[in-house]
Amino acid sequence: MSAALHLVVTLAICPVAAHLLVRARWVWRAPGTGIALWQMLAATWVLSLAGVLITLGLDPYDAPIPEALSAWAGDPLSTVTQDVLVAGGLAVPVAFVAVLVTSWFTVARIRRRHRDVLALVSRTDEAAPGALVVDHPVAVAYCLPGTPSSVVLSTGALRNLSTAELHAVLAHERSHARERHDLVLLPFVALRRCAPRVADAVALLVEMRADDRACREHGPEALASALHRFTASPPAGALGITAASARLERIANRTSASALQRWTALVSGLTLVSTPLSFLVF
Amino acid sequence: MLSKLGELERAAMEVLWDSRTPMLVRDVAESLSKRDLAYTTVMTVLTRLASKGFVQREADGRAWRYSPVASREEYVAQLMLDALSLTGDREAALTHFARSVSSPEAEMLSQALADKQDET
């Protein structure tokens, strides 16, 4: 029973930690660490939820989980409650993976179509080396992830940006492509309906991570003025504007979190995720 | 090879966009005569475009006449809507620099596509 209790506590910690992490501002100074923390938190949540159900179902066998699991599988006299708990517990990670896979295929289909259309209507432009240009007055700059990934600009964006700003935007988009930020975002976007604020928080961290790369290569001034130009007209959602001002503010006073802060965060995350793992494996 | 085919698809599409009437494979090949392509190559290119849903064909006697499904501007509008995440749950499909579209602009883009759908 103590195993189940441990897991229940871990499971209860997850929403509290998520609540704190959504509000945390220090992660903005270490977006990479922040992203890793969110990933560990998500893994902890899935594993503890599965763990709680499985341990409760297997409690009567009074053995470590792997042994109890084989005992349960070979036990003709297990109760319905037990069966439901164990099967439910096993279904949690299966469902999680199924959601990810479905989401992946949907995204891949959208991208393939987008890539096909791009191939027909985009062109290259000397002003934006390595990027595809689409002729449209609305300013957009984005990355189409995949192998190979493409960075796409509209003529609207191209016209509005100075050379320095353009290079900063391209560096930002290339870092999305290189670090496969689309894969980082996938699970959070797939589960957006369950936790919309978490998805937004992770998306913002990903942008900040790409901002850091762009700053390192082309300096904060170019990136900040590019962002200003992109957000001068009113954005579609309120999120756009808060996110942009948060990004602008941190570009203006760039400070990184200390190594101690980062390591403390990572070790706490690892401790959290190892709790359900230790019960499920040993 | 793949990129060469892609380039041909684009060229064939441009021919079809420029033409006001549906074209025979022979007509398309003629318009691309600078490239000195075999008839079967042009046929392959058009079939590929049809399978991707970019061109439609109608029977004309024993041959097919090809025409674009949508105009170039409509495809550009589709890309822009994708890029601005205005077409449903596309957050993970693309990562954009910043959201910047104003509501009238978004409206205009959606309208461009809606008009087309009404026509067909």
From TrEMBL, chain A:
- Cite the Peptidase M48 domain residue spans from the record: 112-191
Pfam families annotated for this entry?
Peptidase_M48
Residue ranges crossing the lipid bilayer per the database entry: 6-24, 36-58, 84-105
Q: Which UniProt keywords apply?
A: Hydrolase, Membrane, Metal-binding, Metalloprotease, Protease, Transmembrane, Transmembrane helix, Zinc
Question: Among its keywords, does the record have GTP-binding?
Answer: no
Q: How is the cofactor bound?
A: Binds 1 zinc ion per subunit.
What cofactor is needed? Answer: Zn(2+)
Q: Which PANTHER family match?
A: POSSIBLE SENSOR-TRANSDUCER PROTEIN BLAR (PTHR34978), SLR0241 PROTEIN (PTHR34978:SF3)
Give the UniProt family note. Answer: Belongs to the peptidase M48 family.
What is the protein name given in its UniProt record? M56 family metallopeptidase
Species the sequence originates in:
Lentzea indica
